Structures are given as C-alpha cells and as structure tokens.
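Journal club prep — side note

Before the paper discussion, L.F. wants everyone to see what a predicted structure for a comparable chain looks like in token form. Sequence:
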Amino acid sequence: MKKNDTIRSAVFTVVSVLWIIPFVIALMNSFKTNDAINAGIFSVPSSESFAAGENYRKALMFGNYPFLKSFGYSVLISTLSTALIILCCSMAAWYIVRINSLFSKAFYYVCLFSLAVPFQMVMFTLSSTAYRLGLDKPWTIPFVYLGYGAGMSIFLFVGFVRDLPYEIEESAIIDGCGSFQIFFLIVFPMLRPIAISVGILQLMWIWNDYLLPYLILDITEYRTIPIHVQYLKGSYGSVDLGASLAVIIMSLIPINALYLGCQKYIVKGIAAGAVKG
C-alpha cells in the first residue's frame, strides 16, 4: 500500500469514528436513568444507572400518544412523498430533455430557481395554501413535499436523462410504442441509479423533517416522529431525556439501515446526474 493511501485511510478512519460517536453516546444514554444522564452523558451505564428497557417502554407510550402511531404516519408520509417525487420529477425531466421547447426550458429554470428560495420565505404562504386546498392530512401532504422538493430532483434527473441514448427510444417509436410505454417500459428502468439516489436523499429529508408537518398537520391528531420527540415532556417543561433518546434511536435505525443498503447507488446516481449534457 502506498504512503498516500495509508494516510488517506487513517484520515477517513478518524472521521468515521468522530461521525459515529454521537450515535454511540445517544445509544448508551438511552439505557440510563435521567439522573444518570444529567450527572454525565459520557459515563457508561452501571448497575445503579442502568434503566434496562424502561426508557423504550415509556417512549412507546408517552402522553397517551403511542410511538408506533407516529412511526406509522412518518412511514406513510415519507414513502408516499418519495414515490410521488420520483415518479413526477422523472417524467418532468424526460419531458424537459426530449421536448426541448421554450416552455420546457422556462419550466426547468423555474425549478432551478426554487433551489435558491429559503423555506422561511414561503412557509406561511405554503401552509395557508395547503389548508385552503385540503392538503393538511398525512395522505395529502405528499403533494406539498412534491412541490417543494421538485427542484433538486428534476435537476438530478435532467442530468441523467441527457446521457441516455435516444436511439433506443427511436426504435420503440418505430415499433409503435406510445409515450407512456416508452417512458415506463424503456426510460424509467434505465433511471434506476438516479431514482434510488433521489429517493434516498428525499426520504432522509422527509423522514427527519419537523417544520413542514408541524405547520400543516393537526398535531393533536397526526404526529410524525420529530413532532413526537417534542412532546416527550413532563410538567413545567421537564424533558424525559431517556425516553427522548430512545425515540431518536428507534427512528434512526430504519432510515440508516435503508441508507446503508442503498449507498452503492447514491454516488453513482448523483455523479451521473451531475454530468452536463
């Protein structure tokens, strides 16, 4: 092994350890009592401070609102939103690249412009519009996520579609295929790497998003996991640290497992989508 490779490996090993330390600390403290957590977050659980599964039991049912209900709403919102973004943005990107009209170019630049608009500038208008249109339910809020998350997704899809060989689509047209057949049977399967990349990025954003569901949903009835964490409070604003950390750990496991399982597609898809055609 070359000297440069050894140095690079050592640096990335240190970075990896530093990255995983917060997770280890959170996992360790999720098995400690609140008094032990307040006394020292870096201490290892002892026989006196070990809370066993008590924090996880309280996290599953705290304030008469079960964690599994919040988990279900997070799964529903995240999966529907991600699927809608992948489907609509991939179709829009294919239209932008293949039609190449004045309208398609203007639409593309409007999507790019949306990337520069901070959420704080549009959040009140967005939430009031969602209320008026009846998009304030877990099964309708994905349309709000589609509108706000389309910019980056279309940008990545457009870069990928530009590299697809048009000759395959021409052959399908000669064989009598229509637009929907060409897209769903030929184009969309070739978009798999970038679709997985976009899906993972959007899924992680939506899964961890706090502000948009808090502004739009009725939080007394519909709570996602980030909102559920906020309500892990006792009287006078006291926070149950052990239960909060238990919720955080339970929410991190599925999304990180999915990320690790699909990580080989992410770099490939983003790199291909960033190529300017």
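L.F.'s comment for the group: Residues 65-273 form a domain with the MetI-like fold fold (CATH 1.10.3720.10). Keep this in mind when we get to the figures.
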